[in-house]
Structure formats: C-alpha cells, structure tokens
Design brief:
Blueprint (H helix, E strand, L loop, with lengths): L1 H31 L6 E2 L5 H9 L9 E6 L8 E6 L2 E6 L2 E6 L3 E9 L3 E8 L4 E6 L5 H21 L1
Antiparallel strand pairs: 1-2, 2-3, 3-4, 4-5, 6-7, 7-8
C-alpha cells in the first residue's frame, strides 16, 4: 500500500512539474515576439512595416499614423490602418478604405467583450467598423483618428 501511495505522489509531482514547465515555456514564447495592440508611427513593429510595404497598402504620398493588427498571431493579414489621407481596413489581401475628406461621422463605444468599436460613415453612405480587443489601446486609435479627421475637415474648409 505504501508503494502505491509513493508512486502516486511521484506521478502527481511529475505531472505538476510538466504543467509548470509548459506554462513557463509558453509565457517566455509569448513574451519574445512582437507586441500587439494599437501602434502609432513612433512604435511600429518591424513585421508590420514589412507587411505594409510588401503588400503595397500605402501609396507614396501617405504617412502611417496608427495601426492595429487584429490577428492573434500578429501576421498583419487583418489590420486597421490610419494614414494622413485614409482609414484602411486590410483583410485577406483586400483593402477597404475611406478618404478622411469623405468621412461624415465617427462613432465610438466600448463593449465589455468586444472592446472598442469604432464606426466610420462616409458621405456616400459607406460604413466601416473597426473592433479593437479589450486592453489593446483602442482609445489611442480613436483619439488619433478623431484628431486627424478634424485636421482634414479644417483643411478642406480653408481650401
């Protein structure tokens, strides 16, 4: 009976150590890659800049202002991108965009499970929805978008 109890304790200890090792290795792996969340021009990850360039998402006259990679793996295949001229939603190699000068309204709300939800409507009736997961600095993306849109509206009024 004592042998069975001893082997049982050893077996449980080994299983516990394996689980702890897996958790530690997983945390190290997660911490070693690029950091997710909203990025602005001064803290962009190299993988994102490379993906944007290779896929020719921006035209030569645009400057990147804000970026959010919606993929868990941070591959860039689904991303919200704000430039000096447009708001772009890139998904599966296709760009959907609205020129800042064509934006009629921007709405923002926070949802418990979804995070920040930004809805952008153009004068032509087109609507774009951007969802930024909780704890990914969605407020930063929204603030940069609003400031850029206001600047765009003021520029249009003066010309």
């Amino acid at each position: 009976m004592k042998k069975i109890l001893l082997f049982g304790c050893i077996g449980c200890s080994v299983i516990l150590l394996v689980i702890i090792a897996i958790v530690v290795v997983g945390l190290i792996w997660l911490g070693s890659g690029p950091e997710g969340g909203v990025k602005v021009s001064n803290d962009m990850e190299a993988y994102a800049l490379k993906y944007i360039k290779e896929n020719k998402i921006l035209d030569g006259s645009e400057e990147l202002l804000a970026y959010y990679d919606a993929t868990v793996s941070l591959k860039g295949t689904e991303a919200a991108i704000l430039t000096t001229k447009r708001i772009i939603y890139h998904k599966n190699g296709i760009n959907d965009s609205i020129n800042l000068s064509d934006i009629e309204d921007i709405r923002h709300r926070k949802e418990v499970l979804t995070g920040d939800v930004i809805e952008i409507s153009s004068a032509s009736g087109k609507t774009m929805k951007i969802e930024i997961a909780p704890m990914n600095q969605g407020e930063t993306f929204f603030n940069v978008l609003m400031k850029t849109w206001e600047k765009s509206k003021n520029k249009t009024r003066t010309t």
